[in-house]
Design a protein that fits this description.
By secondary structure, this protein is mainly beta. 6% of the residues lie in helices and 52% in strands. The protein contains two helices and 19 strands.
Length: 418
Amino acid sequence: MKKQYAILVLFLGSIQWMQAQFSLDGEFRPRTEYRHGFGSVIPNAADAGFGISTRARLNAGFTAEAYKFYLSLQDVLVWGENRQLLPYDQNNSFAIFEAWADINLGSGFSTKLGRQVISYDDQRIFGGLDWAQQGRNHDAGLIQYKKDKFMLDLGLAFSQDYSDPTGFRSVGTVYNTSGFFSYKSMQYVYLKQAWENFSGSLILLNTGFQKFEVDNETPDGVNSLQTLGTHLDYKNGDFGVAANAFLQTGDQVKSAYLLGLDFSYKASPKVSLGAGLEIISGNDTSTSKSEAFFPLYGTNHKFNGFMDYFYVGNHVNNVGLIDVHVSANFTLSETSSLSVTALNFSGEEALASGEKSLGTELDLVFSKKFKGYSLVLGYSQMFVSDGMYELKGVTDANAADIQNWAWAMLVLKPKFLN
């Protein structure tokens, strides 16, 4: 009998140990969208887009004395994309979103290896892009150092897309994956120091993109792009100010830049106000190299309007952008809030016609928390100027009178084990 009690105590103790070391949680996030001018000006003759997608994730973490391990499985499902009784996922969207180990090296040093989210500061250059159902990740290795309020990260990545099931290629390391700034190699250094009311960071990033000869088949080295800059953040009581300053240069780009300045003020316990300006350099066609900045791997949906007219898989090597915006956030109750943002857009460079004015966007987002889940609703409308028609290739006469987008998203994040 004593032996049975001992086994029971040992079993219960092991469960308690597992719960202390092992975490298991998930996410279920369906989103409905009505798109009538999302991403670009919609012609009057075109029908609005409407659909529902769901992100499902299962996340497992384990913490030991010398290391941490994390695994995130993900599938993005569009309702109706698979016929009934189909024995496989038609769009092949099931994936390992994250799989990494963080090894403690001692004296403030650690190394994080594997597929992971890389996100810094306001996510302007590196961000997780959580709005997108698929999210953004990197296959990379990081060497990290932290002491008090100082941190330093060294990131390294080398990408391959071989399909040989036997393993590595015997010859060469040609990287054929292209689009959305998929890089063959990446190296960066990130430093951040925080004080009582102020923090500043510095990033130096080099990305190498596979280059081909004219036939688009014969590899010809890499095109390198360097991005360097700083993010500054100051807060004092109810007032805050944040600034970005980044420069890009490389084999095909020179003197491209991004400058941003944002102010925030908590007017009352239930009202917060914001105002800001962002200038992103555009392409001057009189030069042989592009002068257009692109924010690369940031959470670009967060910036320049939620309707994604700029820098979300688009607006590359274009006229740049001047974004002037104001916002107000209202706490309606302990569980609900409303944000209102107005943005005015113009080109940093003029279009072929000489026009710069692009339009004004209005973004509304309402969120409500319930017991164990939340509901988020959004509505955006673009008030198009002449330059936007030219930029997007739709004439004023052929464009729909109203350019808008509406969405509703349910978010559940169950915690199975803590």
